[in-house]
Amino acid sequence: MDIWHVRGGNRLFGSCRVQGSKNASLPILAASAVLPVRSVLRNVPRLKDVDAALKILSHLGCGIDRGENELVIDSSSFTGAEIPRELMAEMRSSVIFMGALLARCGEAKLSLPGGCQLGKRPIDLHLSALRQMGAEITEEGRDIFCRARKLHGADIDLRFPSVGATENIMLAACAADGVTTIHGAAREPEVVSLRDYLAGIGVDIRGAGSSTITINGTDRKEETEYTIPSDRIVASTLACACAAAGGRIILSGVDADHFSTVLHFLNEAGCDIINFNDIVEISSAGKLRAPGHIITAPYPGFPTDAQPILMAALLRSQGTTHITETIFENRYRQVSELRRMGGDISVSGTEAVLRGVEKLHGGTLTAPDLRGGAAMIVAGLQAEGETVVVDAGHIARGYESFDDTLCALGADVWIEHK
Ligand code: EPZ
Hints:
Shape: globular
Distance between the termini: 5 Å
CATH superfamily of the largest domain: Enolpyruvate transferase domain
Strand order of the largest sheet: 21-22-1-23
CATH architecture of the largest domain: Alpha-beta prism
Number of domains: 2
Strand content: 25-35%
Helix content: 25-40%
Largest sheet: 4 strands, mixed
Structural class: alpha+beta
Bound molecules: ligand EPZ
CATH class of the largest domain: Alpha Beta
Radius of gyration: 21 Å
């Protein structure tokens, strides 16, 4: 258990290099098992979810060597096809090991994944696509048994641009006979970085970043090196923290295009945003205004992961902000906690209405999930007094040394580890 203590009132100044992307790293770690190759990965963030993925790879017989700046995975010693429940339960993205295992050895024994409780989070799109590629899949309770003598290419239509399903299909298609085409694919930057990694080990993938992706199976095996891009949601979180607390920070190593919708709303809310190459500078007087209707959507729309965090940043803004959450059916779990700090937010189904208040006061809150926990830290930075966030380890799943990062920018934050 991590008990976060945040003393509000400090403005943020300084610069920081944003960590590598959790949601780019996780599918690439699964992909490293698709072919018997040695992968040298850089800028992989030190996170609980990454540790969970490495435990799965190690369980499957892969060699793992984590140095100061490089993570080397050698999957030539791959032996397994079964992932124990306790490893599957640690995070949502364990589900994309299904595609990797089917590609590598034609079978997979796993169970429904864990992860943030943002709603039902079914995996029907994953399963129906893999069945179309020739996998025989039986579900028994939470257990899933997959087998495929030989996967074959397929023309797959996704009714929703699911990130995980797109990634799972890409991994399975690496070893399929013939071409697989995904229509209605997710366009997230993390799908593009997965393509970049797979191209490095010899997989022919076209169209990543668009709604139509084609994958040509391969048996080529090449050692590869890849540097994980920066985390666009962590960058968004730091930008929102500065917007809420006031000050001026410089984020480096980022691609502003990957979180341009978040920067747009911060600019509308009164922040000055300057972007030059891989640098974004955010300045804020610490008193924001309502930026207009925020509607979450698949990329390139406003990212659902930034919704709780921008909501927190706007708690003291002038005016009323309407928020519509279109991706997850239960992504307002932070609202009841933010209300306890004095936030004025009403929720009805997918709609939230936030009325800015003059002041927020500290309190003791419970982090409901990864991004909800980060939202509470952002709220605490602008609250009077001390905010205590009781966190069952959610924040550490996605934010590397987040307390150190905030303190280096001038925040008064510390963690009691219990
Ligand atoms: C990925 O989750 C991210 N996680 C999430 O980030 C992110 O919120 C989400 O994409 C949306 O952008 C990782 O990349 C590890 P989806 P994923 O499949 O793949 C429904 C974070 O905080 N759906 O695009 O699970 C689903 O219920 C996390 O870093 C089906 O109905 O998201 C949801 O409503 C949280 N059937 C919607 O699609 C399926 O088979 C989006 O899910 C799959 C999904």
